[in-house]
Specification:
By secondary structure, this protein is an alpha+beta fold. The protein contains six helices and seven strands, in the order βαβαβββαββααα. A five-stranded mixed β-sheet has the order 2-3-4-5-6. A two-stranded antiparallel ribbon has the order 1-7. The longest helix has 11 residues.
Amino acid sequence: MNTIDVYEASRSGAQWQGSVPLAELTRLATSLAPDPAGRATTLYYACHCGPDALGRPALQLRLEAVLPLPCDRCGEVLHFTLAAGSLFYFVDTEEQLAAVPIDDSPDEALLGSAHFDLAELIEDEAILQLPISPRHGRCPAGALSGRAAAPEATAPQRPHPFAGLAGLKERLPAEADGADAPAAPAEAVSGSKKRPGRR
């Protein structure tokens, strides 16, 4: 699944869940460390479309993964647990998107489309959840320098519980189903972590 019609999906209450091999997420992969143990291989996702509290077409997205990141202190691999949920609502035009106030609301506006790139949104959200400075909870480099160890990196939590999506990894098969997993975007884009068409 590369693209979806967000308006039809919201009207019908469409839901999807599946998994994507990390190796296919080329933009995310630039931030990952080699993982010889092979513990981190897959990003799991679940989506639920439907009107939000204001009647706008919306999409709830839940991501879970274990990501291998380089520790900023010792350079060794740490396994970062990503478990995050986000709520998006859709507007029809660029003008409407530009008029959305920039505030602290956890709900984010996106430009709607009959050909919305869900795969790109999934990868974008995974990238945005990465810690700025990943560090082991008990890092030998921190101990040697006399500095207090920073807590193990965890994904920031947003106030949408997604109780119906609990146990995501347990409900999914161990291997990704190619028919369910959205393909990674064809081109890697470096630099900005903010995708066009979102506010």
